[in-house]
Amino acid sequence: MEETTSNFIEAFIEEDTAPGGQYAGMKVHTRFPPEPNGYLHIGHCKALCIDFGTAEKFGGLCNLRMDDTNPSKEDVEYVDAIREDIHWLGFDWGDRFYYASDYFDKMYDYAVELIQKGLAYVCELTPEEFREYRGDVNTPARSPWRDRPIAESLDLFTRMRAGEFPNGKYTLRAKIDLASGNFNMRDPVIYRINHAHHHRQGDKWCIYPMYDFAHPIEDALEGITHSLCSLEFEDHRPLYDWVVEHVSIPYHKPRQIEFARLGINYTVMSKRKLRQLVEDGRVSGWDDPRMPTLSGLRRRGYTPASIRNFSARNGVSKVTSTVEYGFLEHCLREDLNEHAKRVMAVLRPIKLTITNYPEGQSELLPVENNPLRPEDGERQICFSRHLYIEADDFMEEPIPKYKRLTPGGAECRLKGAYLITCTGCVKDGAGNIVEVLAEYDPESRGGNPADGRKVKGATIHWVDAATAVDAEVRLYDNLFFDPDPDGGDKDFLDYLNPDSLEILTGCKVEAGLAEAPMPEKGKTAEGYQFMRQGYFCLDNRDAKPGHLVFNRSVALKDSFKP
Questions:
Q1: Mapping DSSP to helix (H, G, I), strand (E, B) and coil, where does residue 517 land?
Q2: Buried residues in 174-213 as b, exposed as e (16+ CB within 10 A)
Q3: What sign does the dihedral 135-138-139-141 (CA atoms) show?
Q4: Is 185 within 8 Å of 32 (Cβ atoms)?
Q5: Secondary structure (3-state) at 551
Q6: Is the dihedral of CA 542, 546, 547, 550 positive or negative?
Q7: What confidence score (pLDDT) does residue 560 get?
Q8: Measured between alpha carbons, how far is residue 514 from residues 5, 158, 255 in Å?
Q9: SS3 string of 23-58?
Q10: How do residues 357-415 score in pLDDT, each as one tens digit?
Q11: How many CB atoms lie within 10 A of CB 231?
Q12: Which residues are identified as catalytic?
């Protein structure tokens, strides 16, 4: 179940909406503004849950806005993927879906207004000169173009829009304070030239607003009350406030509140680096189950409830921290343990023959679907003379304390079936074991001996050889073997885990899984607990009727200590 706690953001909102507060009597209105230059990842989920969840808690509204002010890497593919991921998590924006590019004309008009007020000017500094003239904590910044006549800046800005100049020739800068201790206020660039095709605007524009100029205007135009941002925008807040105070937007001023981002070990969160993994073919795509993207986690078998619970339990703070990947797995394991159907699957099969069970005979045995949910009922599985078990459940020459099948060894229990004792094995011409031989106790149906004797051996899972279905199983591990692959001066590609994916073919799963529902696009496939193996789901890209492909979502063993 998703956990909820109060936090400092909610305390601010309660103060703002109380009688006498700046938003008293107003509906709380937030927004989630991703840039459509990649897929959402687990780090975005924190902001997403805060933006939508906060509005939900206060009975307010949350807009979805695509921050498409930088056309170089943006694409409609990412827009569609973002919308799908948000709906998958259980959030909805209703009819409040916007693009930053919807406001380009108004932003241009506001920029002209600032020039006319003497609060912006066209600058000719090159990027190199801009860095040189930036100053330091003891030296003010400078620009020889700061006192350019208003009429001249207006003319140049108009010609910039008309496409007369190449990229980098001019920028438009806000005229604020070159000596400010906050470098974001030292006459920041608010427009730049970029001759790039826009995914929605086409070639209409060749100048684009900077995020720090566009964002506050978008918030104000949409009537946002609380602009909830990650902590790196804290130093940008004075610029946010300056913009909405100096352009003539006839609305209230939104309040920006910052919170710490979510970091997780054994992964990278930079969209640029995730894109590099995709474009270099290091992974199969943005939805590769090893990726921290929401589409990748969905394909791996993560549920919306597990991710929302993970986000809620990490809380909201002003302190940046790194969370263990194991905690994310812990949240998934909790959810699947409660809801997943228990089935049997043999991943590395070896044949088991019950020599004293009649040839040609079979029977159906009842098995609980989930012992934690009696309401889920039972199913029938087939048992016969010939079965498959895991290869490592037999050892001809056992190691100390080995409690599984071995010739003359302890009696073992076949899960939900009978007690068996190993009598030997069959080898091929090369000496490889190809078949395990055993005898069963006919009076132990269900795995319980009639005389009540203690079973010293292990309980072993199995599938019926005649009815079992073939499957491919993919075992996933962390994409990186270093807990901090992105730290310091590291090249994250040097820390890719060569064992992050193991593909097993020829696996055997119980017959009922042949009828398992195929995954629907944008939804999590049904989760199953493969007994003794872990939690698995059908792959939402490669599985199809007659060709079962299962991904391991998470192992059974939980090493995380809450």
A1: coil
A2: bbbebebeeebbbbbbbbbbbebebbbeeeebbbbbbbbb
A3: positive
A4: no
A5: strand
A6: positive
A7: 59
A8: 43, 65, 54
A9: CCCCCCEEEECCCCCCCCEHHHHHHHHHHHHHHHHC
A10: 999 999 999 999 999 999 999 999 999 999 999 999 999 999 999 999 999 999 999 99
A11: 14
A12: 35, 261, 271
Joined tokens for residue 386: 């010939």
CA distance 516 to 510: 11
Structural tokens at position 506 = 């020829």
Residue type, 371: P
**Cβ atoms of 106 and 61 closer than 8 Å:** no
Q: How far is 444 from 438, CA to CA, in rounded Å?
A: 15
Tokens of 89: 């998590």
The residues of the chain scoring below 50 in pLDDT are 1-4
Biggest CA pair distance of the chain: 102
With DSSP H G I counted as helix, E B as strand and the rest as coil, what are the percentages for the chain, rounded to 5?
A: 30, 25, 45
- Return d(Cα 190, Cα 354) in angstroms, integer: 78
Q: What is the DSSP string of 188-218?
A: -EEEEE----BTTTBTS-SEEE-HHHHHHHH
* CB-CB contact of 130 with 186 (8 Å): no
Residues paired with residue 264 on neighbouring β-strands, in sequence order: 323
Cα–Cα distance for residue pair 301/551, rounded to 1 Å: 7
Residue 165's φ and ψ, nearest 5 degrees, are -120, 150
pLDDT in tens, 27-66: 999 999 999 999 999 999 999 999 999 999 999 999 999 9
Structural contact between residues 405 and 389, judged by C-beta atoms closer than 8 angstroms: yes
Given a contact cutoff of 8 angstroms between Cβ atoms, the answer to whether 258 and 317 are in contact is: no
Beta-bridge partner residues of 425? 436
| Token pair for 361 | 């005979």
What phi-psi label fits residue 489: left (phi over 0), alpha (psi between -120 and 50 degrees) or beta? alpha
How is residue 252 annotated by DSSP?
A: P
The token pair at 159 is: 């010609």
**Which token pair is 415?**
């899960």
- Is 261 strand, coil or helix? coil
Which tokens in the block code for residue 56?
Answer: 């939900």
The answer to whether 103 and 218 are in contact (CB under 8 A) is yes
